[in-house]
Amino acid sequence: MKILLTGATGYIGSYLTEYLNKEISNEVIPLCRKLPDYFKDWRNEFEVVECDVTQLDDLKKKISEKIDCIIHLAAFNDVISSQEPEQALIVNGIGTRNMLEIAKERGCKSFIYFSTLQVYGKELQGTITIDSSIECADDYAFTHYVAEGYCKMFSSRHGLNVSVVRPSNIFGCPVHPKIDRWTLVPATFCLTAYEKNEIRLKSSGKQNRDFVSLEYISKCMESLIEENKSGFNIYNLTTETLFSIVEVAELVQSCAKSILRKNIELICESEFPLASNHFLARNNLLTSPKKEEVQDALSSEIEKMLKMLMEV
Fold first, then answer.
1. Average pLDDT over residues 267-275
2. Which pairs count as long-range contacts for 84-87, CB under 8 Å and 24+ apart, including other chains?
3. Three-state SS for 102?
4. Which residue, among 32, 137, 153, has the nearest Cα to 101 in the 3D structure?
5. For the chain, where do the domains classified as CATH 3.90.25.10 start and end?
6. Model-level pTM?
7. May I ask the CATH architecture of the domain 2-170+211-237?
8. What was the pLDDT predicted at 21?
9. What is the pLDDT of residue 189?
């Protein structure tokens, strides 16, 4: 299986590149704008494509003729999307359209697009399914939803098999410490615990989140590639279980005590929100892990991140 993976040097992309490459029958082709020095060894292992997804002509020249599957991850994250909304619309929207054009021209068997659960809103309530109403609250969610529209259009017009995945809050130790996603929970708590001996929340921390691991996401991708479902399909990738922000902060606090061997102060700067939001985001792809398994995975990945910071 020849798999082209865009955004390959990002947080999810780098993990997925190395995960899928473990399967001997896979030939993974990482695509990125420019390969960072800390991934220079990839040149010995992969046919790396350096190209901007917004440049269709370059994509056509540099991407090989035969591709079985495209996993499209290249996009502005939530932070950059809020800072550069116009460019986010181009990268997340037109960039996706360009990759769909490549999939059409190369006769790809499947196209997998990484969207976000945030298309349903920020502070979710009630039961969320793929049929729930769309409530984009920021440029990050909106530009991903625009990209979803292109996915649906290309599937309908050109018969592409397209899977849109909407993951919840993804966690896990990055492949390399220089991958700049230390703003995510729980990574940001690990960073401030290590650097400042504290974890500072701007809220009460009562907000609930559905945390899903990089490993689970990768298993879901494996399943999608193998199944190769026809037509246009949407999947929520969740664990169907909740942890509050403050619970995760306390988990980091506990892990830091044993790994860093120091006491970490946990500070909540506000009493708001006064109550937690409760929701159930239904997973319609693979069986969700149990809450105990998610908690074990959180603890394990937190420990890995703390050890990574100690070694930098």
1. 97
2. 85/139, 85/143
3. helix
4. 153
5. 172-210+242-278+285-311
6. 0.97
7. 3-Layer(aba) Sandwich (3.40)
8. 96
9. 98
